[in-house]
Each structure stands twice: as C-alpha cells, then as structure tokens.
Specification:
The protein is α/β, with parallel strands linked by helices and 495 residues long. The chain has 23 helices and eight strands. The strands form two sheets. The protein has a five-stranded parallel sheet, with helices on both faces. It binds adenosine-5'-triphosphate, magnesium ion (MG) and zinc ion (ZN). Magnesium ion binds next to helix 3.
Length: 495
C-alpha cells in the first residue's frame, strides 16, 4: 500500500533524526557513550511514536564498526547496512503477537550462549511484548535476570501494564510520549519539501490533529492526502472519503438511533473501502466518551458536533445511554485488536449496541427480582391481602407440621374452616374437645398470624338425638350385633 512508503522512506536512521522523545534519546546516547547500556530495555508508549525505530538505532549503535561521537551509528559499515536491511544475523526482531513468536523465543534462549557471529553484540528486539505467552515470558525471565554480556534485549509494547511485574522489574524502562503537534507539523512540512509537494499549512495541521500524536498515523494520512492530490484543508474535509470526523458522527448517529440495518450496511461499506476498523473504533470510543462528558458536565466541556441530525439525537439521549455505548465500545475495542476477524467483531459490536434497548427489559426484570428478594421496594411486593387469599388450609397445615409439630395433630383432626376475605370461620359441634383445649389460645394465634385475619368459631348446639336415631347409628348396631342384644334403654352421660 502506498502509505507505507513515506513512513519507511523517512524512518529515522540515527538518533539525531528522531523527532521528540528527547528524554529517551538523551539517556540512551549517554549510556552508549559510557558503554553502560542496560541489557534489558523496555520501550513503552502509544503506536507509531518511535519504539521500533529507536530499538533498531540502538542495535546499530551497539554493533557499528564506525560509531560517531560515541553513540551515533554510521549507517555505512556492513553491520549498519545489514541491520538497516533487516538481515543481520545477530539482530533479531521477534513479533510476540505472532504464532512463530513462541518458537522464536525458545530458539533464541537456546542460542543465547553463542557469541555474536558478525557483530559485537546480539540484540533481540521483542515487539508487542505484552502478547508473550506465559511460557514464553517465563522462559525469558531467567535470561533477563542474568543476560550474557554479549546480549541485549529490547522489549517494545503499547501496553506495559499487561506485562508481568517480574519482567517489568528486570528492565530499564523508557516511556515514548505522544509527539507534540508542532513538531509533527514541522516534520511533515519538511517531508513535503523533500517530496516537492505543496500543501497548505492548515491542511497539514488538520492531518496532525487527526493523528493524535502518532507519527506513523500522521505519515500515512499524509501519504493518502498526497495520493488524492490534496492541497488545502477544504480538499481534505470535502473531497476525500476518509474524513474521519464525519464518519464517526454518522456512526454515532446510527448507534444512538439503534438503526441495526443501517449499521450493518455501513459496516460492510467500511470494510470494503479498506478503512482501518481498529482506528475507527478507537475514534468512535473516544467520541462517545466526549458525548458522555458533554452530557454529564455540560458547562465544562466543549464538544463540536457537525452533523445536525446527531445534534438533535444527542440532546434527546440520556447519559445512561451514552455511558453504556461508551462502555460497550471500550470493552470490544480490546477484542477487536486481538481478533483474526476484525470485520465480524466490528459488526458484532455495532449489532450489540443497536439491540441493547431490547435487552433492557430483561435487565429490568433481573433488577426487579433482586429488589423483591431484598424486599426493599414495597411497590413491587404483592399486597398483603392478595397474598393471604392464596393461602389454603392445607398449606397452613403443611407449614404447621414443621413449625409447631405439637399443634399439628390437634388441628389436623378439625373440619376445614371457611376462609373468607375477612375471617376464618370454624363450625364446631358444641361438644368438640378443641373448645376446651388448653392449646386453644396458641392455636388461635397461629391461625390468625398465618392468615392475617380473625378467627370466628360457630358452635352448633348439640342436637338432642331421638331414641330411634341413636339406635340406628352404625356403632350402636355393631355393638348390639356383637352382643346379640337389643337396646332397651338410653340415657345421656352426666358431665
Ligand atoms: N519519533 C519519531 N520521529 C520520526 N519518525 C517517527 C517517530 N516515531 C515514528 N516515526 C515514523 O513512524 C514509523 C513507525 O514508527 P515505529 O515503528 O518506530 O513505531 P512504534 O512506536 O514501534 O509503533 P508500534 O507500537 O505500532 O509498533 C516510522 O517508520 C517513522 O517513519
Ligand atoms: Mg513497533
Ligand atoms: Zn556503522
């Protein structure tokens, strides 16, 4: 791709050509001058700020046969030339993110003991060091602890916090900062001159703003702009399809509107156009963060929205909406950076955000269930009365069986009461033993507590049975039959 041309063509070949990162350059050149370069260096910082570039310059400086001023590689001796071409046997670049990385590390460790073949020092540059597997990192640890005198490790990473502390503590660390806009603009201007290309300063400034401190991004944007024949700021904003700001706003609008079909359509278009999805998602995430901030701290944040439709939608959106989208994007950004299927992951993220409203009720339900179990929300509790009408006598007995086993047999023998809206009505015969039971107060209490209503006991008077009725009762008949007797006289027992 054409944009690689400028970044490659203008990759600094010596310390004096590096833009910015003065603190790094100074420390390293001093160490070179006094021959005290640490055997384990860690270069951390955002992409495209010079980590790999400086690592290669250090490798050259450690091997140059013609070192200038004690630190600057000559770029002419065989060692410098081979390192520049990437073909020096003693300088090895390993991409820890690739599958081959693990094998390479194993290989590297086995070969550590051998002296450099052509140069003075073996230099191992381990890129994306945070992606080292656990085994690879462990294998490396010992070598970092006591590296042979002829070996230097340079670890480069954009995410130093993901490195195990054991590795971090064994390295001398250099933080590569975002490059200052002014410096980058000057640098691009010089490149334009070198390329005999005329571009307005404001156009260069626009590019640098988009690049956000990454020199590689600035150079690749410049490359594209040149390919399109851009001369002015207007050219960039209007004529080019890569006007990112507009694209990010379009996407933000679609996401806030939760327009799934449109989101899928745009996602496919972006992929077809070869847009860097990771970069775009970074911008989008950042934009939603800004939207959220503008919503939360309206007076304190200045946010420019150019798309009028988005402006309206933004006014109607809630800070919760914005926060959730920001959070989803941020979380998926990590996955997107790692996946082998960026287009699918990008689509999935957009789809998740568009479908998020539909997931809301489920979340609400879960919240309500949680509230219910905490009984914190009285509105959500069923009304007391409602609950009691659901209760049956059988349920009560079941409950009692465990709660008050001594009362259970007594109540089990009772005829089932009538449970009404206001009371529990028992119909008992005048002679029912319950009426005289010493447990009666406790029984009453239990029942009233359970059903949340009062007990009423209707006592039916004991019927005066006629002689004929008594004689015909089955138990009397049975006794008479057993005894082969006849009932001659009936008398009520005295109390
Ligand atoms: N400080 C700088 N001065 C001049 N050019 C730079 C600087 N940083 C980066 N560049 C340009 O950007 C290109 C990429 O830089 P480099 O590979 O050093 O970045 P990096 O920090 O290793 O990024 P990554 O984390 O993506 O590997 C270089 O070829 C160079 O043209
Ligand atoms: Mg790099
Ligand atoms: Zn040299």
């Amino acid at each position: 791709m054409s944009y690689l041309v400028l970044a490659r063509k203008y990759r600094p070949q010596r310390f004096s050509e590096v833009v910015g990162q003065l603190h790094v350059v100074k420390t390293l050149t001093n160490a070179l001058k006094s021959n005290k370069v640490s055997h384990a260096l860690l270069f951390s910082g955002i992409k495209g700020t010079g980590k790999t570039t400086v690592a290669r310059i250090v490798a050259k400086a450690l091997n140059c046969q013609n070192l200038q001023d004690g630190y600057e590689p000559c770029n002419e001796c065989p060692n410098c030339l081979e390192i520049n071409k990437g073909s020096h046997v003693d300088v090895l670049e390993i991409d820890a993110a690739s599958n081959r990385g693990i094998d390479q590390i194993r290989d590297l460790i086995e070969n550590l003991k051998y002296a450099p073949v052509k140069g003075k020092t073996k230099v191992y540059i381990i890129d994306e060091a945070h992606m080292l597997t656990k085994e690879a990192a462990n294998a490396l640890l010992k070598s970092l602890e006591e590296p042979p005198r002829h070996v230097h490790f340079i670890l480069a990473t954009t995410e130093p916090n993901k490195l195990p502390p054991t590795i971090l503590s064994r390295c001398q660390r250099f933080d590569f900062r975002r490059l200052e806009s002014k410096r980058v603009v000057q640098y691009l201007k010089r490149i334009c001159e070198g390329e005999s290309y005329n571009m307005e300063l404001s156009a260069l400034e626009f590019i640098v703003k988009e690049a956000q401190g990454s020199m590689r991004d600035a150079l690749s944007l410049l490359d594209q702009a040149m390919a399109y024949g851009v001369k002015t700021r207007e050219d960039i904003v209007t004529a080019l399809g890569w006007h990112e700001e507009a694209l990010v706003e379009d996407l933000a609008f679609i996401l806030l509107e939760k327009d799934l079909p449109q989101a899928m359509k745009l996602s496919r278009e972006l992929y077809d156009r070869g847009i860097d999805l990771i970069h775009l998602m970074e911008k989008l995430t950042d934009f939603f963060r800004n939207l959220f901030m503008a919503k939360t701290l309206p007076g304190e944040t200045s946010l420019e929205i150019h798309n009028p439709k988005l402006k309206e939608t933004f006014v109607l959106s809630t800070s919760e909406d914005l926060l959730i989208i920001f959070q989803l994007l941020l979380r998926d950004l990590e996955t997107l950076k790692r996946t082998s299927y960026p287009q699918l992951q990008f689509e999935l993220t957009l789809a998740k955000i568009c479908e998020y409203k539909k997931l809301m009720p489920l979340r609400d339900i879960l919240q309500k269930l949680e509230d219910l179990s905490n009984k914190t929300d009285p509105i959500l509790l069923p009304k007391e009365e409602k609950r009691t009408t659901l209760k049956s006598w059988t349920d009560f007995l079941e409950n009692l069986r465990f709660e008050a086993p001594s009362l259970y047999p007594i109540l089990k023998g009772l005829p089932e009461p009538e449970i009404t809206e206001v009371e529990i009505v028992f119909k008992l015969q005048g002679g029912d033993s319950l009426l005289k039971d010493t447990y009666l107060p406790r029984i009453k209490e239990k029942i009233e507590q359970y059903f949340q209503r009062k007990i009423r006991v209707d006592v039916e008077p004991i019927k005066e049975l006629s002689l004929e009725e008594i004689k015909s009762r089955p138990e009397v008949q049975m006794i008479a039959k057993e005894l082969s007797a006849k009932v001659a006289h009936i008398e009520l027992l005295k109390e």
